[in-house]
């Protein structure tokens, strides 16, 4: 069986967070974090709309959102590019999916987390997100690449 | 992370365990651990469940998944041995079936001979012929002499 076939047939392999983690692992050295410039949006074109980039250099307490994918921007309902993470509305995927970014800075490893929240329309949302550390010098984390996707839960 | 349970994927290399990544879901953690292990970059990997008890304030850890190159090599060896044993068993069974089929086709199996070989038989034949000739000569000698 080929890798491609395995990926197509295995639901776990289709998960956004695992596909992005696999891509991130392939970017750099085992001992060093990959840099932001190593990320090629064309290679991860299907995931890129679900991604968000945080600038944490000197802004560890409240990172700056330097890129927001279209899928996440649509969920947020406001243009958050250039804004601080704290300015993201609390009931959005960006806010929920990146809420644990501080743990990534402390542990210096990728973290994936899932949960649920009620969005601004009052609909329950199930989500899963991942945050991956990036570094220009391979050692000090200066960017975080996040990604999240979600689905609505209809009850009744 | 706000959950009470997390799963840390640890990798072992150069004599030390290092945290590789953290998950809130055991299934995803174990799946990623298997994927990392299959990559062959690390000599061993494990997934450690960390559970925080809010009442006692204690964190308990337990390993919920583990894999190493040594274990994989041992498993390979055991699998090869198992395959060899199975092949031998099947070959023996096939040989037994062939003999049975020949018997059933009206060609009964002959009992295995354990007597003297062709050289011994030739020598025995020679001795008998010589003894016969000797007897004839002896008889003729007795009759003609008397």
Concise description?
The complex is a heterodimer of chains A (156) and B (146). By secondary structure, chain A is of the alpha+beta class.
Explain what this protein looks like in three dimensions:
- The complex is a heterodimer of chains A (156) and B (146).
- With 156 residues, chain A is an alpha+beta fold.
- Chain A has helices spanning 3-9, 16-25, 70-76, 93-97, 101-107; strands spanning 51-55, 64-68, 111-118, 124-134, 143-153.
- The longest helix of chain A has 10 residues, at 16-25.
- Residues 1-5 of chain A have low confidence and may be disordered.
- By secondary structure, chain B is of the alpha+beta class.
- Chain B has three helices and four strands.
- Chain B is rod-shaped and about 130 Å long.
- The model of chain B has no long low-confidence stretch (mean pLDDT 85).
- Classes of the chains: A alpha+beta (156), B alpha+beta (146).
- Chain A binds chain B through residues 12, 15, 17-18, 21-22, 30, 99-100, 103, 107, 109-115, and chain B through 1-3, 19-25, 27-28, 31-32, 35, 41.
List key phrases describing it.
heterodimer; A: 156 residues; alpha+beta; 5-stranded antiparallel sheet; 5 helices; 26% strand; globular; B: 146 residues; 4-stranded antiparallel sheet; 3 helices
């Amino acid at each position: 069986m080929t890798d491609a076939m395995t990926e197509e047939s295995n639901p776990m392999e289709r998960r956004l967070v695992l596909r992005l983690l696999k891509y991130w692992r392939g970017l750099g050295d085992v001992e060093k974090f990959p840099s932001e410039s190593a990320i090629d949006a064309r290679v991860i074109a299907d995931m890129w709309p679900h991604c968000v980039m945080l600038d944490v250099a000197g802004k560890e307490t409240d990172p700056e959102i330097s890129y927001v994918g279209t899928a996440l921007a649509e969920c947020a309902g406001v243009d958050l590019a250039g804004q601080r993470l704290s300015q993201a509305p609390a009931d959005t995927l960006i806010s929920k999916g990146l809420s644990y970014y501080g743990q990534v800075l402390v542990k210096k490893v990728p973290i994936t987390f899932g949960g649920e929240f009620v969005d601004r329309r009052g609909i329950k949302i199930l989500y899963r997100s991942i945050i991956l550390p990036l570094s220009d010098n391979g050692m000090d984390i200066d960017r975080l690449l996040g990604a999240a996707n979600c689905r609505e839960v209809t009850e009744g | 992370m706000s959950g009470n349970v997390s799963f840390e994927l640890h990798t072992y290399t150069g004599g030390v365990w290092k945290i590789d990544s953290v998950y809130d879901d055991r299934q995803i953690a174990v799946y990623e651990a298997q994927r990392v292990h299959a990559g062959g970059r690390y000599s061993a990997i494990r997934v450690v469940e960390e559970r925080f008890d809010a009442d006692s304030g204690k964190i308990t850890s337990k390993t919920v998944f583990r894999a190493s190159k040594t274990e994989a090599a041992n498993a390979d060896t055991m699998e090869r041995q198992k395959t060899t044993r199975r092949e031998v068993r099947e070959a023996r069974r096939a040989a037994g079936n062939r003999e049975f089929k020949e018997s059933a086709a009206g060609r009964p199996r002959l009992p295995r001979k354990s007597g003297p070989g062709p050289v011994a038989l030739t020598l025995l034949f020679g001795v008998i012929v010589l003894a016969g000739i000797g007897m004839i000569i002896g008889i003729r000698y007795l009759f003609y002499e008397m």
